[in-house]
Amino acid sequence: MSVPGGYALELRALHKRFGKTEIIRGTELAVRPGERVAIIGPNGAGKSTLFNLISGRFAPSSGAILLKGQDIAGRSPFEINRLGLARSFQVSNLFTRLSVFENIRCAVLWSLGYRYAFWKFLADLEDANRRAEQVLEMIRLDKRRDVLAMNLTYAEQRALEIGITIAGDGDVILLDEPTAGMSKSETGRFVELIREVTQGKTLLTVEHDMGVVFGLADKIAVLVYGEVIAFDEPAAVRANARVQEAYLGSVLAAAQAEQAGQVDASRLAGDGATPQA
């Protein structure tokens, strides 16, 4: 699909105020089709607000949000979704008493334009059922097809959330902290899953795990106090002095300190030392 101006998503002079408090301050961002972009920044930088603006949960105070060249600022979430943008949330939002397959099929029905009606049998909707089965295979939950969502592991619930997000076949995918709460091994597998299911799509993700950020993203946008202070490839962002001063240096220092603390604790445990009275 050709994109006017060459961008899948573009933010122009975007502002958002809550009363007298300005959270997003003239944000500019231009993401090309197929790019994977990680949005990072300190707590309170405005990352969640930015996602809420793009997905239509909030209306901007001023500025433009262009999805494939079309201004979507102020449109409702369902309208934006129909135009090709899908979003997942940090907290899983599932139908816990429905099966894995039924959760996916609900998302597929909406994307295909079906409306719920008591005289329709869902089992007869071959296109919806076929698409749901395809998504299940993509997220590797086809063997858990008939399990209730409430009985899945946490990592499986997050995978199901991704499946619901991509079920509508949107061009632009927003993932809000997709690996939050996962172990290191789960995170590694989940990053590979994200890579696979978003192949060829435009991806924006908010993420705090720097290993995920530098391993997944083609580009990184650094948001500080509602402004994008850097937007570049990972190596360039890592070397950016302003980014190091404002955010990345403290994050890496904290990670190094935590690692050093774990090493020290391991040494103490290995010494078998006991406190003396």
Task: Tell me about this structure.
With 277 residues, this protein is α/β, with parallel strands linked by helices. It has two domains: 1-84 and 176-183 and 206-264, Rossmann fold (3-Layer(aba) Sandwich), CATH 3.40.50.300; 89-169, no CATH class. The protein is built from nine helices and ten strands. The chain has helices spanning 47-55, 77-82, 100-111, 126-138, 154-166, 184-197, 210-216, 234-239, 241-271, and strands at 9-18, 21-31, 36-40, 62-67, 70-71, 85-87, 172-176, 202-206, 219-224, 227-232. The strands form two sheets. A six-stranded mixed β-sheet has the order 6-7-8-3-9-10, sandwiched between helices. Helix 3 packs across helix 4 (126-138) and helix 5 (154-166) packs parallel to helix 6 (184-197). It is globular and about 55 Å long. 35% of the residues are buried. Residues 272-277 have low confidence and may be disordered.
Structural features:
single chain; 277 residues; alpha/beta; Rossmann fold; 6-stranded mixed sheet; 4-stranded antiparallel sheet; 9 helices; 40% helix; globular; disordered C terminus
